[in-house]
Amino acid sequence: MVTAASIGSRVESLSSSGISTIPKEYVRPKEELINIGDIFEDEKSTEGPQVPTIDLKEIDSEDIKVREKCREELKKAAIDWGVMHLVNHGISDELMERVKKAGQAFFDLPIEQKEKYANDQASGKIQGYGSKLANNASGQLEWEDYFFHCVYPEDKRDLSIWPQTPSDYIVATSEYAKELRGLATKILTVLSLGLGLEEGRLEKEVGGLEELVLQMKINYYPKCPQPELALGVEAHTDISALTFILHNMVPGLQLFYGGKWVTAKCVPNSIVMHIGDTLEILSNGKYKSILHRGLVNKEKVRISWAVFCEPPKEKIILKPLPETVSEKEPAIFPQRTFSEHIQHKLFRQSQEALASTKEAAISTTNGAAHISTKEAA
């Protein structure tokens, strides 16, 4: 049921209401606001470290030297950064544009129409249109609305909650999900070989063709009158095995690298790929799940399409693979199911929120590391 309260709770409504100051629930603690400046100027900067761009054109080349050079660059980026821009990834520019056009068209609908697809987090119905609920003791919120749904495998989708408008939404999104699933196999093959494993090993460990689930979250970040005080998405690492991200070429993604926040460039026709916690655990920390956050701005709406490749919640035990563990490199992660890993992260977040922010600021590097703690405990 569409109510005035639900409509009023959307960040889009706040943004379009003409407010000049944001409600206190959206104001982040000082230690979370380090390195927040003009995101457009930051994106243009060529100083300091830059997120690597990996060209996948030769990933399956018949020339072994050419192929190995491509694969080594991918492996190096996964070890050093845990995030990269993928180009020549095999998914057509036309299909990516269709996906983005369809997603934007949904968010261009009046809020009353979008509310027909609203989720109900309190009852466990997490798929659909929503806004982030407060997930910490101080009741802080993020400056975003979103649409979340399972997009692959086909038998796990619930098309009844997918947008019916625009008409191309279901077709384009389904085709894109299928293409991404193939790309995930290619990436997992290279990363398996990079650990000295059989090429199909990592894919098997995250659920294989039948069980690996792709969940799409379209993040909609409205214009914000005080972007220096807010976050679109707070600092976090992804729980997935891999995450693939499209965006509308408006900057906002920042990565915590080398003790500083680095703004990702907007690389045309690329897909941003993150290594998630799942692969970091399986590789015993050799591949990195990098801390990242989303910034907002006054001038332009930012939209991103994140697809999380996740293992089944209970069927698979996540732990460092035996081949990645030795006397010199003991296991740094405990044994957990994917579901237990999620609960562990939620518990840690709630504990950290209860801690004094003043103490946290003192004990962190540049005020950010307190939320980047890896899941070794």
Describe the structure.
The model is unreliable at 1-6 and 356-377 (pLDDT under 50). The N and C termini lie far apart (43 Å). The chain contains 12 helices and 14 strands. Helix 4 links the parallel strand 1 and strand 2. It has one domain: B-lactam Antibiotic, Isopenicillin N Synthase, Chain (Jelly Rolls). It is globular, with a radius of gyration of 20 Å. The strands form 3 sheets. Strands 1-2-10-7-12-5-4-3 form an 8-stranded mixed β-sheet. The protein has a 4-stranded antiparallel β-sheet with strand order 6-11-8-9. The protein has a two-stranded antiparallel sheet with strand order 13-14. The chain is an alpha+beta fold and 377 residues long. GO terms for molecular function: dioxygenase activity; L-ascorbic acid binding; metal ion binding. Keywords: Dioxygenase, Flavonoid biosynthesis, Iron, Metal-binding, Oxidoreductase, Vitamin C. Its cofactor is L-ascorbate.
Give me the secondary-structure topology.
Blueprint: H1 4-8, H2 11-16, H3 39-44, E1 53-55, H4 64-80, E2 83-87, H5 93-107, H6 111-114, E3 128-131, E4 145-152, H7 169-194, H8 201-205, H9 208-211, E5 213-221, E6 233-236, E7 242-247, E8 253-257, E9 260-263, E10 271-275, H10 277-282, E11 292-294, E12 302-310, E13 317-318, E14 336-337, H11 338-354, H12 357-363
Helix pairs in contact: 4-7, 5-7
